[in-house]
Fold:
Amino acid sequence: MNKQIKRLPDSELEIMMIIWGAREPVTSAYVSEQLKNKKEWKITSVLTFLARLVEKGFLTSTREGKVNIYSPVIGESEYLESESKSILEKLYGNSLTTFVSALYKSKAINEDDISELREFIDKSAKED
Structure:
């Protein structure tokens, strides 16, 4: 997709992660239930976030009886790809080496992660 995908605030991203994880259209009650042990948001807050996500083009809303059914318009992988490119460009000058180096120096990744990355690169190179 060529259009620029907007970055979501953490609260809206958390709701999208629930919807993507459901793998089927959901109701606001479903989203609220999934958040129950994580957030103390009232249903009005959940409805506000869902409305914003519809407005931003991340979700569609269809009325079925007395409830709205929400479906994702933008897929999880599409959003994550866009965010990954954006982070790499903004914070690391589009340098993957600088990014991985920063992760390694901060101990966010370890030798096992580096080995896994090396295997991924080798495998990807063979497929091209």
